[in-house]
Structures are given as C-alpha cells and as structure tokens.
Amino acid sequence: MTDYKIIISNDKKWNILEKNNFSIFYNAEKDFAKDFLKKDFKLPNLKLLKKFLYDYIGLNNFIYEDNNYIICGVDKLNSDNIFYFIKDKNLFLSNNINDLLKINNYKFNIDETSYKDSQITGYVLGKKTIIQGINSLRAGELLFIDKKNKDFKIEEYFQFYSPNTIIKNSSELIEELKGVEDKIFQDLIERNKDKTILLALSGGLDSRYVLTSLLKRNVSNIITFSYGYKNNFDSFIAQKIAKKLNVEWKFYQTTKESYKKIYNSSLRKEYWNFAGQGTMAPNLYFFESIKKIKDEFDINKITIVNGQAGDFITGNHLPTFEESEYLRGADIAQLLFNKHFQLNMKINKDKIQIQKYKMQILEQLKLKKEKYYHYKEAAKYLELWEWKERQTKRVINMQKVYEFFNINWELPLWHQEYINFWVHQSYENRYGRNLFIKYLVETDKYNVFKHNAEQLPKWLTTNTYITKIGKIVKFLSLGIASDYYYNFMSLFCKYGFMYSPYSFNMYLKKFNVYKDPLAYLNEDWVSEYHRNLK
Hints:
This protein is an alpha/beta fold. The protein is 43% helix and 16% strand. It has four domains: 154 residues, Glutamine Phosphoribosylpyrophosphate, subunit 1, domain 1; 184 residues, HUPs (Rossmann fold); 63 residues, no CATH class; 68 residues, no CATH class. It has 22 helices and 17 strands. α4 runs antiparallel to α22, α12 packs across α13 and α19 packs antiparallel against α20. The longest helix is centred in the last third of the chain and has 23 residues.
C-alpha cells in the first residue's frame, strides 16, 4: 500500500467531529466520538483500543484519522458498513459501497463465489461482497492503518463466544438477570422519555418480553403494531396479547397488489441501494408497514423497538446432542451447512459445493476436520458462526428500513450487558431457552408466558387445512411427495405476497428449487448490479 483515500457518503446519516489534526466520522451513540477522543490508546498497540470497543455499550461504527493513524471500526451488530479495496497499491475506504463503485466508474465484476454464496444462504459469506475486490469489515472488527509504515491490519475485538461458563444455580442467575433487565430498560426509557415507543409485536416470546419489561416500569408512551398478510398467526397472537395488556395495537396490512406496487417502484430501488451494500438483497417483508408508520407519525417523536435476535442470544438455535457427546469438526460443519445453506435446493445438493462450504466453515472457525470436540464446545462454535454470518448480516440488515425512513430504532436484546450475561451461560441453561423460560415464568406479572415450545405456523389462520392435507400426502406417498407439496404451498403462507412480482409460470419452474421469496429477491438484486457494472 502506498496511499489511501477515505470517501464518506452523503447518502448515509453519519456525523462528523473535526479539528485541525484529526477527524472522526461516525454512525454511533451521540457521545461516542467524545468518549473516543478522551482516551489515550497508546497506539500502535491495539490492546486498549480493543478493550474500549469491547466495553462500549451501543452502536459505534466509525472512521477516525489523525496525522499518524487511521482507525475504522464496526460494532458488534454490524449495524452499518465500512468497505475497503486496493487498487494500484492505493487503499480505498468508504461507508458506502456505491461511492466506491462511482469513483471507479463502475469498472468492477460480480464475484462469482459471492454470487453462489448469496444464492444458497441469502447473503455473501465472510469479508467479501458481491463485487469482486471490495471487502467489508464484519461485526466486532477494526481496521488499523499506521501511516508511517503504510500498512494496515484487521483485528477482532469482539466475538459471540466465551471459553468460560458461569456455574451458578438458577435462582442466582434469575436475580442477576433481573438486574441486567433493569439496566437495559431503564436506559431505554430514559433515552425515549419524550418519544412514543412503537413496539413491533409478534406472536413470539421476545417482543412480548420487551413489552412487559416496559409496562413493569410504568411506560405509558407505547403503541404496539404488527404487519403482513391479513390473518397471519403472529398478528393474531399479538392482538390477543395487546388486548390482555391493555395497550394500543395497530395492524399494517400488506396485500399482493400493494407489495407488487412497492416492489416495482423507484422507492424500492432506492432502498436496495441504501441497505443492500453489496452483501444481500434487503428483505421487504415489513417495508410497507414502516412506510405507513412514516406517513402516519412525526418521525422525530417516535422510536421503533423490537425483540429481534433475542431467541438466538438466549439459546433457541442450539441443537440437541442426545446421540453424540463428542463431534468431529466435520460434523460441526455439516450441522451448519444443513441449517444455513438451504435457500437454493439445487445448489445445496451439489457434492462439490457441499465440500467447499464445509471446508470454508472449518477454516473460519479454525477447527480440524477429524478432531473431536465436546458437544458443549461444539455448541459455542455453532453460535459463533451464526452470529458472524446470519445474525449480523441478514437479521440486523432488516433494521435498515427504519434508517431509510429516518426513524430512530433500538434493539434492547442486543444490549452489551444482555449479551455478556447469556454468552457465558451453560449449554443446559440455554438449550431450548431453559433459563430464559424459567425467568419469564418466575417474573410473569401479567400471566402472558405460558410457553409453547412449538413455533407459530407460517400458514394463515384461514388455511390451516394445508397441514392436514400435508399429513395425508405424506402418508399416501410414504413421505416422498411431502417436501414437494409443502414447497408448492409456500405460495399460500404468510410470506405469500412476496411472490406477487413474479409470474405463476416462473413460480412453477422455481418452487422446488427456491426455498422462499428471498431466493427470488437475490436474483433480482444481483441482476441490478450486473446492469450497473461496466
């Protein structure tokens, strides 16, 4: 590297603090820049800097430059992006991939490996983007440039992983969790005391937990809302919960016609440019509902809150290991492949691709293929991979819709203290959300946590006959036609309106290859990049 160039996008709502010998651009908590500048990090050693970023509560994406160093950091959620690429020994840095494309006159190619990733998972894996040569910092990473030496390095300061496990009895842990909850929600309430909190209420436990945690603290400035197809199970349950808790509930309906209209609009294209950022096709499932909220409310007086990722953090994604106390590295890779590489049901049957992705997983987790790992250790690796890839890409990207409409948002269950509590818990406490369920039941002031271990069906309340017919199909075909049947019936599930931009003939060709609408979105997303590149 001989030189560098920093490009800050005007399209992104980043702040700047600038003086004669330094500048810091940031999308972070309002006090982050001041807190950062107060510190003597004793650079170029990164120990104190990494500790500062690890301990910092809140969002903290930034690009800092002074006479000696450039430091870029992405927070633990990957709530925003920082990109880099090298051309003619020059390092380009930006918070917007589109600006990097522009200054190079769009003379880039699609990265075929990244394209394959997006087809099978719905997002690009690792540090790569869909654009060949352009990389992205990932959650919990920082990039450090020493100007004198003209070199740079990327290091991790946080991972969703702990080598240690806290050993305490349930009663002690429940008391500790009460304190964590109090800290999280008192801070949230204080930050939003002059705003109306709009809580996205689903049929699951996490948004319900957020709602009751606010109500316990006498929050009155709250409105709940749900969205999607009429008669979806989430909104059905959410309405019942809101009624029982005597809070206002709104429903923002999306139809096939309204979704198709938005999908074909320039507004959707603007959103994809804003949120896609070379990593994935942004999900549009609740885009219309947020647009309606933006039109209905004064956006300066609201904050949208949801409970996303709470299920992952508290252990709901952990598998059972009843049959195996020890797993080989190859077994861990296979479990991850079986769970996360299913979007394209043709590619995931390609033996060459399967082996390629399994090796990639092993390399990323630094596991040996034939080495045995205890199941409790294996569980930690499964979650580490999912945090680094799916959660901080696909799940967190869904929050971009709020930013697109200039609406403030919060994810209380991604609070640093909440993560710190759960990441150190034992497999037994986290599997099936055991400790979390105990906590909900013991602190259930409103009697709304009668836990049902089954997931809410993806069908509508008006077409539960689909599963009844499915059982008959499975019985008569000895299970052979069951997957084929359910794949086709996805057209009638709660995501059914997301197929509306496509012809029925296309659906007939693709329904047994594309697992869900994200696969269709992905193809359109890549095609739009193809049209823009030279």
